[in-house]
Design goal:
By secondary structure, the chain is mostly helical. The protein has helices at about 5-10, 20-30, 40-50, 55-65, 90-105; strands spanning about 5, 35-40, 70, 80, 85-90. About 25% of the residues are buried.
């Protein structure tokens, strides 16, 4: 059993994750290695939680864009759960990883988990003036 950091989980509500996002993250946490490495395809993860292929792809995109899941370049079927959310083999390993992650974020070498960037406000139809007929 891995030890999870409370630091990240206390902030998950701020990331605007959907139920499918949470389900996919949960499946990834089940199969992670200590430190957060996940070697599983989206199809394997999808089968664990019963999501469609499209919904799994969207959920993974959400987790990646919010920096909860990190995707190394050029590595097939390999993901890393952000150190703030990953599981660790010991309390000491977790404390060291969190300290290193915090320093890396401050140095700009690691991105912090963040909610999606605000999108441009959409105009509501009531804001469009009605056309007058002649």
């Amino acid at each position: 059993m891995l030890i999870q950091a409370h630091l990240g989980f206390a902030q998950l509500h701020r990331l605007e994750l959907s139920k499918a996002d949470y389900d996919l993250l949960s499946a990834m946490m089940e199969v992670q290695r200590p430190g957060g490495e996940v070697n599983a395809s989206q199809a394997e993860l999808r089968a664990r939680v019963g999501l469609s292929k499209n919904r799994t792809s969207i959920a993974m995109s959400h987790l990646v864009e919010r920096n909860v899941v990190l995707r190394p370049e050029g590595r097939y079927r390999s993901y890393f759960i952000h150190p703030y959310f990953a599981g660790y083999a010991s309390q000491e390993e977790m404390e060291e990883a969190l300290r290193e992650a915090t320093e890396a974020i401050k140095a700009g070498a690691l991105v912090a988990p963040a909610p999606p960037a605000p999108s441009a406000p959409q105009r509501h139809l009531s804001a469009v003036p009605a056309r007058r007929s002649a």
